[in-house]
């Protein structure tokens, strides 16, 4: 699972508008493109029962907290592609989250969304206590670290898969402990990561981290720090009471590269700050670099398209500016000519002429603005993932899962020969998967693993979907036919889609391994049928 805390950066709107917008967004049944979004929603600690009344109740209590500009905290929990939580699991996850944060008595709205490849849940918590009306700061502001502990507990209880390099895990005694295999990675802030996801290009923050982190960390004096950064094309400059690292002309806060690189902390280690001298190349903008090795050739094409559209926007802006300048020049010449012609008629006549000229000029400028606004604007380039997805859905999904693909791993669509001969293979493959993976596993994860193994044995998507529909009736409680079909569709989408291709490529599955696990499943079927045959006379 992944957890993310969304921080609001703009507080220009009133609390009621901000909170109302958040509630409307997470509880909307469809997204902007008209797709079904809301799987189900819930609430805790409200006096009222309807959505409209709960929204007003949350706004009313939040407005009591005068000292907090936004007492509503917005969290997102996301499951992996092969995981589908039930309503009971979502309710339990919310309860565990609120208890771990010390907010069990606080107003909470939550909604599970299904409009993306991953099920994800939005949680809105009002940090204003409903009785004391004090705004609570969970864990004295270190709530993100605590959230990772809660995620580890939820994964352990419900059988979800942990992310790679997760911070915390649950030991054999059932206690949440620090993951010894976790390696603290220096990575860009969310805003920089959003830029990278949109463009496929390394942010200035990532470049500063990759090139300068080791230099700054190993420097023993200011001279060594400046020389090392100059060698990799960066500059360290004091700014106010802090410091920035320049990547070309882009400034990155030194503390954003690493929390230990703030000016005060560096001064304690290196002594009083000393400015450095840098070569000319550190002032030039570095060439764009791809953030991932995935879809590199396509990214180069995308960069050319970005440059072309940027040039078109620049030329269009230049043309608009030239039109404004020509209009101002004509108006200036007309004012001068009119002043010269009417100067002999006295000041009163001149003032009247100036007044009407000013009104005429205002109308001409307004007409020019309208004409320019109605003119065809240069095309705006889509985000890199959308651009890729339009060319090929497979490429778009490869980019989406890029962090799971190691360099050198070839991900391709594979067709597997039919070697599975079991008439109804679901039960046999379920026992085989349970034997291979004895750890606790949620039912949806188990079904996804079964579907992936059946794909490798040559079963078609239709056969896998049919097996799931026949054998998973009891798992999703109180589901109607359409919900059961959607459940099977998501399982099959994972097993036969790009996520399944990646998992197959990562384990480098061979035909001998496929033969082995298929024989294992067939032996389970044979053993089960023999058991039934031996028991049947006694039953008679």
């Amino acid at each position: 699972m992944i957890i993310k805390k969304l921080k609001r950066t703009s507080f220009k709107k009133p609390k009621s508008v901000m909170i109302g917008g958040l509630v409307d967004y997470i509880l909307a049944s469809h997204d902007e493109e008209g797709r079904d979004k809301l799987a189900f929603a819930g609430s805790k600690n409200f006096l009222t029962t309807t959505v409209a009344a709960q929204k007003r109740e949350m706004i009313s209590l939040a407005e009591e907290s005068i000292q907090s500009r936004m007492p509503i905290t917005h969290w997102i929990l996301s499951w992996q592609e092969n995981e589908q939580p039930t309503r009971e699991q979502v309710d339990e996850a919310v309860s565990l989250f609120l208890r771990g944060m010390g907010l069990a008595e606080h107003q909470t709205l939550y909604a599970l969304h299904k409009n993306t490849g991953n099920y994800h849940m939005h949680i809105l918590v009002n940090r204003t206590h409903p009785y004391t009306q004090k705004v609570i700061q969970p864990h004295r502001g270190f709530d993100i670290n605590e959230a990772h502990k809660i995620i580890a507990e939820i994964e352990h209880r419900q059988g979800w898969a942990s992310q790679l390099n997760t911070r915390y895990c649950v030991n054999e005694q059932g206690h949440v402990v620090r993951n010894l295999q976790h390696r603290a990675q220096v990575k860009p802030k969310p805003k920089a990561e959003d830029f990278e996801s949109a463009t496929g290009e390394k942010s200035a923050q990532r470049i500063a981290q990759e090139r300068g982190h080791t230099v700054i960390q190993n420097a023993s004096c200011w001279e060594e720090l400046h020389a090392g950064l100059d060698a990799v094309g960066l500059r360290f400059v004091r700014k106010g009471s802090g410091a920035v690292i320049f990547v070309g002309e882009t400034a990155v806060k030194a503390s954003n590269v690493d929390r230990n690189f703030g000016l005060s902390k560096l001064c304690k280690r290196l002594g009083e700050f000393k400015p450095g001298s840098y070569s000319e190349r550190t002032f030039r903008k570095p060439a764009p670099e791809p953030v991932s090795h995935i879809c590199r050739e396509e990214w180069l094409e995308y960069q050319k398209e970005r440059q072309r559209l940027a040039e078109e926007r620049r030329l269009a802006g230049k043309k608009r500016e030239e039109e404004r300048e020509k209009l101002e020049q004509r108006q200036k010449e007309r004012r001068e000519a009119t002043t010269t012609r009417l100067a002999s008629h006295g000041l009163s006549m001149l003032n009247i002429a100036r007044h009407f000229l000013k009104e005429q000029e205002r109308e001409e400028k307004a007409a020019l603005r309208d004409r320019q606004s109605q003119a065809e604007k240069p095309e705006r380039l889509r985000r890199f993932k959308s651009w890729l997805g339009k060319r090929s859905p497979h490429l778009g999904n490869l980019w989406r899962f890029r962090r799971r693909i190691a360099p050198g791993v070839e991900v391709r669509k594979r067709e597997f020969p039919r070697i599975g001969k079991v008439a109804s293979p679901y039960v046999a493959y379920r026992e085989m998967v349970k034997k291979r993976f004895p750890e606790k596993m949620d039912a949806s994860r188990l079904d996804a693993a079964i579907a992936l193994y059946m794909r490798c044995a040559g079963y078609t998507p239709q056969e896998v979907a049919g097996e799931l529909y026949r054998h998973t009736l009891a798992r999703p409680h109180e589901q109607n036919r359409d919900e059961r079909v959607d459940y099977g569709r998501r399982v099959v989408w994972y097993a036969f889609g790009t996520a399944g291709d990646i998992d197959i490529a990562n384990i480098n599955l061979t035909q001998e391994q496929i033969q082995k696990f298929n024989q294992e499943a067939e032996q389970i079927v044979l053993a089960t049928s023999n058991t039934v045959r031996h028991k049947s006379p006694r039953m008679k």
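The chain is about 55% helix and 10% strand. Strands lie at 2-6, 38-44, 72-78, 108-113, 120-126, 168-170, 176-178, 235-239, 242-247, 250-253.
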